[in-house]
Amino acid sequence: MAESLHSGIWEISYIELTLxxxxxxxxxxxxxLEREFGYHPAGFRTxxxxxxxxxxxxxxxxxxxxxxxxxxNVRMDPAxxxxxxISGVGFLGAGTILRTGVSITGLTTAASLWVVSAIxxxxxxxxxxxxxxxxxxxxxxLFLLNKLEKSFSxxxxxxxxxxxxxxxxxxxxxTLAKIAEFGLSIHKIQIENxxxxxxxxxxxxTVRLLVKAGxxxxxxxxxxxxxxxxxxxxxxxx
Length: 238
Fold this sequence. Notes:
Subcellular location: Cell membrane
Shape: elongated
Distance between the termini: 69 Å
Radius of gyration: 27 Å
InterPro entries: ACT_dom (IPR002912), MgtC/SapB/SrpB/YhiD_fam (IPR003416), MgtC_SapB_SrpB_YhiD_N (IPR049177)
Helix content: 40-55%
Mean pLDDT: 77
Protein name: MgtC/SapB family protein
Family: Belongs to the MgtC/SapB family.
Keywords: Cell membrane, Membrane, Transmembrane, Transmembrane helix
């Protein structure tokens, strides 16, 4: 009788198994939808797969070795596979982090993948309330707090402008004056090595300007004005 009760702890019905996997797919998909709507690297299907896989690994870790539960020399450890998910999902998150110039994107998506894996583990362990609660909190953070964050950081965000001008040209001085005219502050100027142009005597340099605009509209006006400056060959921004 005692052995039967002991073995029952490590068993799960097909209905309960299905419930956990379906719930993991739903909760992961809800978070993935927000990422999908924002055109982020990891979207709807990726989050479902991460959450579903985590849930299955958690279920496997708890119930996948029931045939050894009654062995006297075997000690069941439900957390052994879950620990590998927590550390192993990092490589997937790292693939969504991109650095372009001075800007880094994908950090929030990487964090959402990590949280989704934790939600999957919780669902797989049958911790339903905590899983649903965290999903609601994550969606609140991604939807509402994202808008609040943008409203605070909109006037503090640094942007990079890249222009190409002939080496030794006065176009840089005119560009700097034009940027100041629109109320943007310049925090860093970096001039890259000159590149030989179409003509033998022409050398073109790329100038990187790290600027901060008081209003987004001012930044857009600068981008429209810079191509009209004599000597400015190309204008790019991040």
